Amino acid sequence: MIKHRSLFTTLLLASGMAFAANTFETADTNRDGMLSEPEYQRYVFNYDVYTNRDTNNDSLLDEEELGISVFDADDFASWDADGDNYLTYDELNISLFDYYDEDESGYLDDDEWDNAGDDGWFDM
After folding, report:
1. Residues 96/116, Cβ–Cβ less than 8 Å
2. Per-residue confidence at 123, pLDDT binned at 50, 70, 90?
């Protein structure tokens, strides 16, 4: 019995690591080594990145729900296009894409994707 639990635990951990290692590849649907904004948006939608943070289910994120320490009040305020103190799905995702597109190429490369992951954005 212990052998089976140990094997199951090992397989479970390995599958979790494989998912974590393949998220960029999963999002890069045309396999060109870069994420376009539509690929990024599709990934964010498919994996419920926004809704997982929307803890009160009002389809809006406030600063507390955003909750990532690398972003500050100035980031939040500049991303809140309509100034209502909440980020809509579109406000957040457009702003995050632009924030992590450090070279302003219009694409996220693997390093930029990793930076977002290191900041905790894609931790699910």
Report:
1. yes
2. low
Instruction: Identify any residues that bridge with 61 across adjacent strands, giving them in sequence order.
Output: 87
Structure confidence at residue 22 (pLDDT)? 55
Tokens of 57: 């289910």
Q: Write down the pLDDT at residue 7.
A: 37
Q: What is the pLDDT of residue 53?
A: 85
Buried b / exposed e across 62-98, counting CB within 10 Å, b at 16+? bbebbeeeebeeebbeebbeeeeebbbbebbbbbbbe
SS3 letters across the chain: CHHHHHHHHHHHHHHHHHHHHCHHHHHCCCCCCEEEHHHHHHHHHHCCHHHHHCCCCCCCECHHHHCCCCCCHHHHHHHCCCCCCCECHHHHHHHHHHHHCCCCCCEEEHHHHHHHHHCCCCCC
Tokens of 96: 């995050």
Q: Say whether pLDDT at 10 is over 60.
A: no
Q: What is the pTM of this model?
A: 0.73
Structure-block tokens of residue 95: 């702003």
